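Below is one protein, fold included:
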Amino acid sequence: MGRRRPRTAATPRSDTAPRSDTAPRSGAAPISRTALALAALALLTGCTNLEGLQDEGRARDVDAPLVLWPGSSPAPPSRNENPAVLVPVPGVPRIPGGSMADANPLAVLDADVAAQGGTPPAPGAVRRPVLHDLTDDGKPDLLMAVDLGPRLSELRVYSVRNTVVTRVLVVRGVLAGVELAAGHLALREPTKDPRYVSVTDYVWDGHAMDLWNLTLDDARTPQTPQAVGGSP
């Protein structure tokens, strides 16, 4: 009697067996991961075409400025042209205490203007004198403003240097405002654009009233509070 060969049991088919989505179907080429990534990127790009980057056309050409007369430059300002040069005021008494509060403001102004060959201004053209420490020595300096016309004004600042009354700044311009803050003296002047004013900022550097900064600022109504000071 012959021996029977054992039958191999068939492997049951499971409907829940995992199936790879990337497995190639019959007769189709396999889909690579790179292709899937490119397709996803295309979908994302298509969703951002309304608010994403847009082509604004050809960029405008940017040309370097054309320098005219590059070999020419101005000479340094002379002593009379430098607004921050220190000039002793002749004809006024010395002040041993070093405070401009001990000086006669109108006498100082008249003597300074006369020393420059000018005519002392009428009292009505002189604004109220202001005392404020600008030279950071703990003693007040003197600020005087003269209205030369409906628009043009002149600002002069005096300090005591080694007991001598000394002019430390003179500026002439259309003064839309004069401000003091943290030892800085800011002069506001109008520009062609009524929305803005130019601001020239001076500060004492230990030797002179140095030009600190030039900026543009929003035009505004001058503030009503006044700086501390007055006529001695």
Q: What stands out?
A: The chain has a mean pLDDT of 81. The CA atoms of residues 18 and 24 lie 15 Å apart.
